[in-house]
Structures are given as structure tokens and as C-alpha cells.
Write a structure and sequence with these properties.
Blueprint lengths: L2 H12 L48 H21 L2 H12 L3 H34 L1
């Protein structure tokens, strides 16, 4: 590239755009306001504090996260324990291969039942926490 061509491009960048020129902003290039203003985030510092009001004191324990996290840790520890020794892995393989369709369905139903029971207990704990904070 030669020096004159570069200066010509730089001159184009620094000159103001005339209103009649094809590069002037038109109505189609001006940003429009959002169609759903309730989806627009609020400006910084304008948060609604009415919904965030909490009584002074300690934050409540999120027992759902604690219990589900503990169950996940137990499942992971059991899986690692089985996979850490070839004899336990062989025993697992033998046990799984001897399952019948009926016993597999029974185990699946038992697992779903356990999830339902744990969810119910956690719902009861959450309800008791709400009553204690509210009353």
C-alpha cells in the first residue's frame, strides 16, 4: 500500500458525516426501545428491596442443598469404593448380571420412592422454617 491511500482512508474516518450522505444514520439504524420493558434489567442501585426484606439475624440454613449434597457425596463415595478394587468391581458386575427384569424394576421404584420421601421431608422442613421465621 502506498502512503496516499492510507491518508485518504484516514481522512474519510475523521470527516463528519453529512445528513444527506448514504452513511448517515437513518431511522432503521437507530436502536428501538425494548418490546417488553419488564425484561429490561433495572439500572444499578434501583433494585426492589421490598421483596428482599429479611429479619435481622442469621441467614436460614438451606437444608435442601445440604441433604441433596450429602446424598450426592454418599453416592460418589460408594461408586469410588466399588471402582477402587477389582474384586469389588467383579462382585458388582456379577450382581448386576444376575438381576432379573422384575428386580431391576423393583430397585428403580425403590429409588424413585426414596427421592419422593426425601423431597417430602425437605418440603416439611422448609415449611417449618417459614412458619418459624414468619411467626
Amino acid at each position: 500500500m502506498n502512503e496516499n491511500a492510507e491518508q485518504g482512508r484516514d481522512a474519510d474516518r475523521t470527516q463528519p458525516v453529512e445528513s444527506g450522505s448514504p452513511t448517515a444514520p437513518t431511522a432503521s439504524t437507530v436502536p428501538l426501545p425494548p418490546a417488553e420493558p419488564w425484561l429490561t434489567p433495572a439500572p444499578f442501585g434501583a433494585a426492589d428491596t421490598a421483596g428482599e426484606a429479611r429479619p435481622a439475624g442469621r441467614a436460614p440454613v438451606r437444608w435442601g442443598g445440604v441433604v441433596w449434597g450429602a446424598l450426592l457425596v454418599l453416592f460418589a463415595a460408594g461408586t469410588l469404593w466399588v471402582l477402587s478394587a477389582p474384586s469389588r468391581l467383579a462382585a458388582w458386575d456379577l450382581w448386576v448380571s444376575t438381576l432379573t427384569t422384575a428386580t431391576a424394576w423393583a430397585l428403580g421404584i425403590a429409588v424413585v420412592g426414596m427421592v419422593i420421601v426425601v423431597s417430602g421431608l425437605l418440603g416439611a422442613i422448609r415449611s417449618a422454617q417459614r412458619r418459624r421465621v414468619g411467626g
